[in-house]
Specification:
The chain is an alpha+beta fold. The protein contains eight helices and six strands; from the N terminus they run H-H-H-H-E-E-E-E-H-H-H-H-E-E. The chain folds into three domains: 68 residues, no CATH class; 55 residues, no CATH class; 70 residues, no CATH class. A two-stranded antiparallel sheet has the order 1-4. Strands 2-3 form a two-stranded antiparallel sheet. Strands 5-6 form a two-stranded antiparallel ribbon.
Amino acid sequence: MMDSVAKPLHAHSEVSQLDAISRLMGLKSDLNMSREGFDKVLAMVGTLLPKDHMLPKTMYEAQKLLKALKMPYEQIHACPNGCVLFREEHKEANNCPKCKASRFLEVESGDGGGQKRQLKIPARVLRHLPFMPRLQRLFMTEETAKQMTWHKNGKWYNPDKMVHPSDGEAWTSFNDKHRLKSDEARNVHVTLAKMGSILMA
């Protein structure tokens, strides 16, 4: 992976092979592009680059290079209508307890009676990225590690303006009471915007 970071995309570029692949994979995700469509984009971009370029020719090749960076995630079966997750008390259920939709894809049973049987393929899957590994990943490179310690090692914004909850009276009071936590630069300041809550880990 470090070799990929260091290798320029081609002799006349300062963009690394890894950076180029990451940007293109991000675009694929944003546009919900199919594998076939992404392969065509790679092929087309490849024709615009010098002959000695390091851009992968297919998504398969790109994924091989990115394999070391993959985040661990948990796959959780979900109701196809978004009612529940099949975990905890619903872990063994084959149908949604609310709307009765099948947890798995269904096909005709083949006996002519109009009955359907469930395959072992989930109808819908939620991929949950654990919170702590995501935070740990942010400390893996020097640049993002610096950004994670902005609250302790110098603020990048105007200190006279409140732009983050940590600038507020309540957080300042917390820091005064818990000096051991507030003096640790790696103490993560995270705002969960959707929930409107603040975590201090």
